[in-house]
User: Which sequence fits this backbone?
């Protein structure tokens, strides 16, 4: 009787039952998503004339998330990671512009920058490790 009511145990795998990737297991994705949520929260008081820049920052963060998923799925890993790093740097510059135009407080900028810096460090570390995997020396040793 207890066997009928018991739930089957979940198996640990990279993909869930629907075939989608559990994103919370990708540290860079989690960092980018936290960065997006922090921007969403901090941009609530941005003046109307600065909202297009704030919207562009959030759009770039979404593109970063897509690049991370592509890298995780081994779709042009190094290219995707480089694009994500470039987009992260662009968002940092745009955030600095918002501060310089007094559209974003320095406190809000400091809080957002924490997430942005963490994301860039993770992306650079990931791309460095991927580059080490594909160096000619490593490729030669894989053939032996």
Assistant:
């Amino acid at each position: 009787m207890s066997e009928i009511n018991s739930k089957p145990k979940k198996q640990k795998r990279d993909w869930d039952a629907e075939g989608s990737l559990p994103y919370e297991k990708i540290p860079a994705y989690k960092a980018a998503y936290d960065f997006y949520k922090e921007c969403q929260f901090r941009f609530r008081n941005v003046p109307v004339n600065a909202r297009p820049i704030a919207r562009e920052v959030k759009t770039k963060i979404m593109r970063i998330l897509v690049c991370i998923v592509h890298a995780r799925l081994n779709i042009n890993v190094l290219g995707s990671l480089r694009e994500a790093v470039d987009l992260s740097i662009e968002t940092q510059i745009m955030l600095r512009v918002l501060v310089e135009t007094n559209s974003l407080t320095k406190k809000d900028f400091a809080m957002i920058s924490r997430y942005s810096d963490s994301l860039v460090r993770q992306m650079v570390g990931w791309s460095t490790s991927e580059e080490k995997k594909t160096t000619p020396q490593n490729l030669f040793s894989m053939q032996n």
Remarks:
- The CA atoms of residues 53 and 127 lie 28 Å apart.
